[in-house]
Design a protein that fits this description.
The structure holds two protein chains of two kinds. By secondary structure, chain A is of the alpha/beta class. Chain A has three helices and six strands, in the order H-E-H-H-E-E-E-E-E. Helices cover 25% and strands 36% of the residues of chain A. The mean pLDDT of chain A is 92. Chain B has an eight-stranded antiparallel β-barrel with strand order 1-2-3-4-5-6-7-8. Chain B is elongated, with a radius of gyration of 20 Å. The chains are: A alpha/beta, B alpha+beta. At the A-B interface, strand 4, strand 5 and strand 6 of A face strand 1, strand 2, strand 3 and helix 2 of B.
């Protein structure tokens, strides 16, 4: 009887800990190093190999800052320049980068969620998105 | 002759400026969803929504990457991508439609304008025509839009195993909030 109860309790603890497992620690994770121009051109090609290399993985992207914005939640958004004038590597910062200005060179670590197109009829190229980003040294 | 050409050129230049001014966009719009269940409320947020709004025609589009939805719990996020949305197979969700009550909105005057939107919502590879109410707010020349509507999970062939179905509601409340900038 005691063993039976112990098994149930252990099972419940296991289920509880799986359900409450914390998110991946991005700040201390290793990442695939790439520059913004390369990442953008690789992911706009829509190749399965490039997708598996970057998408859903932690990447460390270096590049020139095009713009610094804020989203509705007040999170910092850093746009990195690519070789397409209205297309960026779009980084939503989980930890704000201080004193970043357009023209600066920066390294940003985050999870790459992929490329999504804008509307070509309306002449808007898409962005490559990085989420949960941290400034990388 | 020369005079006519100059007038024509000026007219073209003016039309060009006008054509450019019709498009508003954001690449960091917000779409969130909420599902109330017996065990736990599920609330996820995507802040990487691309949206394009043509204020001349009322054409309105949204597209997002499913794997950019962020959940309070890592396990929810994994289940959402792997089991329910199958994000590898169907990476994007999109909406293509129009504001059907465009005449009610004065983009040149500050105010809050209720709108109606109709169009095709594609989620999990399934496209359905939907209608939703929304609001466009003009403030100091800035355009923002919000909307809230309900989506039935079963409409998009999203299969939820019965063992966890008590964790996820059948009907999901979707909220949209975008601050646009002029293209």
């Amino acid at each position: 009887m005691l063993i039976f109860i112990a098994i149930i309790v252990l099972g419940m603890i296991a289920m509880y800990s799986i359900w409450n497992e914390p998110h991946k620690n991005i700040k201390d994770a290793d990442g695939v190093k790439v520059n913004a121009v390369q990442l953008y051109s690789d992911l706009t090609k829509d190749s399965a190999m490039m997708k598996s290399k970057f998408v859903n993985n932690v990447v460390i992207v270096s590049g020139e800052v095009k713009k610094v914005l804020k989203n509705q939640n007040g999170d910092q958004i850093i746009l990195l320049k690519t070789n397409v004038s209205d297309g960026s590597v779009n980084c939503t910062m989980e930890e704000k980068a201080n004193n970043v200005k357009p023209g600066n060179t920066i390294s940003i670590k985050g999870i790459c969620s992929g490329y999504i197109g804008g509307d070509l009829d309306m002449g808007l190229p898409g962005d490559v998105f990085l989420i949960r980003c941290y400034p990388s040294i | 002759m020369m005079y006519k050409m100059i007038v024509l050129l000026m007219l073209f230049a003016f039309m060009n400026i006008n054509a450019k001014a019709q498009i508003y966009y954001t690449k960091n719009g917000n779409i969130s969803f909420f599902s109330k269940t017996v065990l736990e409320n599920i609330d996820a947020e995507n802040n990487q929504v691309i949206s394009v709004l043509n204020v001349e025609t009322g054409a309105l589009q949204f597209s997002l990457l499913n794997n950019a939805f962020h959940f309070p719990k890592a396990k929810m996020e994994a289940d959402f991508n792997e089991d329910y949305m199958e994000s590898d197979k169907y990476p994007r969700s999109t909406f293509k439609g129009t504001i059907t009550s465009l005449g009610d909105v004065n983009f040149n005057k500050d105010g809050s304008y209720p709108i109606k939107v109709n169009g095709d919502l594609t989620v999990h590879g399934v496209t359905k025509n939907i209608s939703a109410p929304g609001t466009i707010v003009i403030k100091n020349g800035n355009v923002s839009a919000t909307s809230s509507f309900k989506v039935l999970v079963s409409d998009y062939q999203i299969k939820i195993p019965s063992i966890v179905s008590n964790k996820i509601g059948e009907s999901i409340e979707v909220k949209v909030a975008c601050n646009y900038q002029k293209k």
